[in-house]
Amino acid sequence: MISSIFKYEFLQNAVLSGILTSVVCGIIGVIIIEKKLVMMSGGIAHTSYGGIGLGYLLGFKPIIGAFLFAVGASFAIGGISRKKKTNSDVIIGLFWSLGMALGILFVSLMPGYPPDMTSYLFGNILSVTKSDILLMIILTVIVTLSVVMFFDYWKTYLFDGEFAAVMGINTAFMDYALLVLVAMTVVVMIRSVGIILVLALLTAPAATAGLVCRGFRARMVCAVVLGNIFCFAGLWLSYRLDIASGACIVILSSACYFAVYFLKSFSVKKKALRN
Questions:
Q1: Which domains can be identified in the chain, with CATH numbers?
Q2: Residue 150: strand, helix, or coil
Q3: What single-letter DSSP state applies at residue 209?
């Protein structure tokens, strides 16, 4: 496969897509797990499907539509959820369903045969184009710099929101900024693993890193490394066996998490019995 990478442009795009996906899912994944925003991230991801359908209907790039809908959903979900009387789970569920419904509606309004939405739902890293890569690079740079440059602010905000407010950090702004970064991360990952499987890749490497690393920074680095391993292993299996790339990546990442979890649990029980 290595020699094929230098021959075929679609494999080069797939490799670069895997690297970009691993970086954002490693960085943002750790943050959303720490902040307990996993399901909210899923709501944002599924809402973006409406933008994909709108893109097909109006004739512009579907991934741009996904970006617009994802960012819009992040502001809407964040704004409504901040109201104390509002049940955030209800809002997330409604946006989750609304986005999928709008995507189906927009596609059904198209004249002629409807387009194949499979790659956006389940991912196909081998079908990533140069224009997709360009957008992914831009969003990955924005996400990475936003976290790295203000790392201490993020760390304070995540671990003690009240202390962050006392220190003069605008926690409301941080809430919205985090959701926008999640939206950008979702868009980067859609072409690799699809909307349906985004949540698994967004959490599995970060959750696995949390089992083996303690420090916040160390968990991010470990999650990025694990994400790359999962993406490249899944890409290799997909190429060799001619099966869905997104599913391979997610199955490998999930299997690794459960393996590490059970090994760590067994190790803890074994130590307890010795003592």
A1: 2-274 (1.10.3470.10)
A2: coil
A3: H
